[in-house]
C-alpha cells in the first residue's frame, strides 16, 4: 500500500491600499518541496525598481528578499529568484518550499537612478 504524506504551505500576500501597486495571487496554497511564484505590478510612471520582503512570524519586522532594477534581478542568497520582464512588473519565485516559508510577503516599488 502506497501512502503519501502531504503538508500544505500557505503564503499570504499583502495587498496595497493603493491601486497603483498590485500583488497576485492574494493567497497561495502549495505543497512543501514545490515552488511558488508571486507577481507584482504597478502603474507608477518612472518607477523601475521592485523590492521584495517577507514579514517575520510573530513580528512586524520585514526580511529583505531582494530587488529588481529594470530587467536585472538581485535576490538574496538562497532559494529566491527574482525576474522582471519590464519596468512595471516582476515575479518572485521561492523554490523548494519549506515550512518556514509560510508567511506574508510584500512587494514595494521605487525609482532607481544610475549614479557615477
UniProtKB/TrEMBL annotation:
InterPro entries referenced in this protein's UniProt entry, alphabetically: Ig-like_dom, Ig-like_dom_sf, Ig-like_fold, Ig_V-set, TCR_beta_variable
Domain of life: Eukaryota
One GO location term (cellular component): plasma membrane
Source organism per UniProt: Neogobius melanostomus
Domain Ig-like, residue spans: 19-116
Signal sequence coordinates: none
Identification of the protein by name: Ig-like domain-containing protein
A biological process from GO: cell surface receptor signaling pathway
SUPFAM superfamilies assigned: Immunoglobulin (SSF48726)
Keyword annotations: Immunity, Signal
Pfam families: V-set (PF07686)
Amino acid at each position: 500500500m502506497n501512502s503519501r504524506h502531504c503538508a500544505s504551505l500557505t503564503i499570504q500576500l499583502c495587498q496595497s491600499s493603493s491601486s497603483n501597486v498590485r500583488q497576485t495571487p492574494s493567497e497561495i496554497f502549495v505543497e512543501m518541496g514545490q515552488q511558488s511564484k508571486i507577481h507584482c505590478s504597478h502603474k507608477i510612471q518612472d518607477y523601475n525598481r521592485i523590492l521584495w520582503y517577507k514579514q517575520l512570524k510573530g513580528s512586524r519586522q520585514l526580511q529583505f528578499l531582494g530587488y529588481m532594477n529594470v530587467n536585472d534581478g538581485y535576490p538574496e542568497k538562497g532559494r529566491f529568484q527574482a525576474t522582471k520582464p519590464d519596468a512595471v512588473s516582476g515575479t518572485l519565485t521561492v523554490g523548494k518550499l519549506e515550512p518556514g516559508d509560510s508567511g506574508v510577503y510584500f512587494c514595494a516599488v521605487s525609482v532607481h537612478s544610475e549614479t557615477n
